[in-house]
User: Which sequence fits this backbone?
């Protein structure tokens, strides 16, 4: 059974654009590379042919995975989200109780995650630890360096 993932409209458009790029541009390039390598002679000793076939296999695997993700993707109407607790597509303002450092993250699907823009995956340790919490709650989250306790200051839709 495939896992349903929730995306913003923008996130799903990016996924579909990447899939179209792979199918319409990269796939024909891979086929052309195989044809050119095949034309160079003996396939049993042709490293270029082997590399082109391997690249095509990786490309087809990526296309297949993206097709599955897109098929199981659901767009979330962010205006309907409950802001009383942390859910996917919530913006969460946190404070590290040990350092006092404040930060804001938006919880998104794994493929939309981008730490530079403050988007973290709901499948990450921090994302999992925040789900279901409310403003004022504390979340103890196990990270590679040990445990961090965050105080949830605010939950919003952004």
Assistant:
């Amino acid at each position: 059974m495939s896992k349903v993932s929730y995306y913003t409209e923008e996130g799903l458009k990016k996924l579909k654009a990447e899939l179209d790029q792979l199918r319409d541009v990269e796939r024909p390039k891979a086929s052309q590379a195989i044809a050119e390598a095949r034309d160079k002679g003996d396939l049993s000793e042709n490293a270029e042919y082997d590399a082109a076939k391997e690249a095509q296999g990786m490309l087809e695997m990526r296309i297949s995975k993206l097709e599955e993700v897109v098929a199981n993707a659901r767009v979330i109407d962010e205006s309907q989200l409950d802001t009383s607790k942390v859910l996917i597509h919530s913006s969460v303002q946190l404070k590290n109780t040990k350092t006092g450092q404040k930060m804001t993250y938006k919880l998104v699907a794994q493929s939309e995650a981008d730490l530079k823009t403050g988007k973290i995956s709901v499948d990450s340790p921090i994302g999992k630890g925040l789900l279901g919490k409310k403003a004022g709650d504390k979340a103890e989250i196990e990270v590679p360096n040990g445990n961090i306790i965050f105080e949830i200051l605010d939950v919003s839709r952004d």
